[in-house]
Amino acid sequence: MKDKYGRNINYLRVSVTDRCNLRCIYCMPEEGILKREHDEILRNEDIIRIIKISAEFGIRKVRFTGGEPLVRKGIESIIYETSKIKEIDDIAMTTNGIMLYEMADTLKKAGLKRVNISLDTLKKDKFKKITRIGNIDNVFKAIEKSLRIGFEPVKINTVVIKGINDDEIFDFVKLADEYPLHVRFIEIMPIGEAEKFKDGYISSDELIKSIGGLTECKVGPNSTARVFKRKNAKGSIGFISPLTCKFCKNCNKIRLTALGTIKPCLHSKEEIDLKNFLKDEVKLRFFLKDAIFNKPLEHNLEKEISQSQKMMFQIGG
Where does [4Fe-4S] cluster 2 bind (predicted)? Predict the structure, then answer.
């Protein structure tokens, strides 16, 4: 389905929980978050119902996010039921990787095709500092297993912050040289906890210039990344630049939060609450279709901070 600006909206990101088993310094408060009551969160069957109706309106790709999606009870079932929707041809997940090693086989069997693993450092002590409570060995095991069992592609999402992990850029580049991994360097966005690190912003152009020896690859029209290869590298290097290179004009996404609201744009304050219409499919279809059609033209992060009423861990990026 096309929105009023003519963009084909075919990608739904589903935040299945705002809970996480890490406390990354740029994402979640150190003390954690207010625990939601069970009836505040969409049930598994509600999520599937919304995905099915979204598929009727042209959604073809679904990505499960969080918080951390693997802490959601029944995530395997949600993925399996999604895989049975004939219109959906791509099921992906963004995860911090802490629980992925143990769950990878089950997830793949359920229908998960590919994973993005968030990893901001390759150093054990720094990982503990950034995540506050994490063990990087679990993530390394998850990456190795994801490659071994055939998730394709396996991407590494790295938020770059000056003074925190910018000294490891070449270590990540070498990782993509040696393994068939697709490393994505992401500009930090001024939303939620990340506002505290706005002075640590580094542009993608700076990174591209500092790395050198990169050959740009052709990507699809809806790609949010500029992608490059290095000579003889097994993987690729990408740069996601929401501030310096807005991709709004080609944005094909809408987002469903765990609380049952649709966010047509990551950074807008507008949300459409679908929870009141879960038992009325006529109204549910109407408001979902309306949310897609009236997706905002663009964000204005280059002018001001995000207008989102939610933190990043509540949206899933």
Answer: 248, 251, 265
pLDDT at 198: 84
Is residue 94 a known part of a binding site?
A: yes
Going by their DSSP bridges, the two strands 236-240 and 225-229 should be labelled as: antiparallel
Q: Cα(158)–Cα(120) distance, rounded to whole angstroms?
A: 5
251 is known to lie in a ligand binding site: yes
In terms of residue numbers, what domain contains 71? 11-314
Q: Is 118 annotated as a binding residue?
A: yes
Alpha-carbon Rg for the chain in angstroms = 19
How many independent structural domains does the chain possess? Answer: 1
Cβ–Cβ under 8 Å, residues 142 and 100: yes
For every residue of 103-117, which 3-state class applies, written as one string? Answer: HHHHHHHHCCCEEEE
26 in a labelled binding site: yes
CATH number at residue 280: 3.20.20.70
Is there a binding annotation on residue 13? Answer: yes
245 is in an annotated binding site: no
Mean pLDDT in runs of 10 for the chain (317 residues)?
95 95 90 76 96 97 97 97 98 98 98 98 97 96 98 98 97 98 93 84 95 94 92 97 76 94 83 92 95 84 52 54
Identify whether 43 is part of a domain.
yes
Do the annotations mark residue 316 as ligand-binding? Answer: no
Q: What is the pLDDT of residue 249?
A: 84
Q: Is there a binding annotation on residue 217?
A: no
Is residue 17 included in any domain, yes or no?
A: yes
Residue 201 lies in a domain: yes
Q: Name the burial class of residue 276, with classes exposed (0-12), middle (13-18) and buried (19+) by CB atoms within 10 angstroms of its CB.
A: exposed
Within a domain: residue 3? Answer: no
Q: Measured between alpha carbons, how far is 135 from 155 in angstroms, rounded to an integer?
A: 19
d(CA 172, CA 236): 10
Instruction: Check the annotation: does 53 bind a ligand.
Output: no
The answer to the question of whether 24 is labelled as a binding residue is: yes
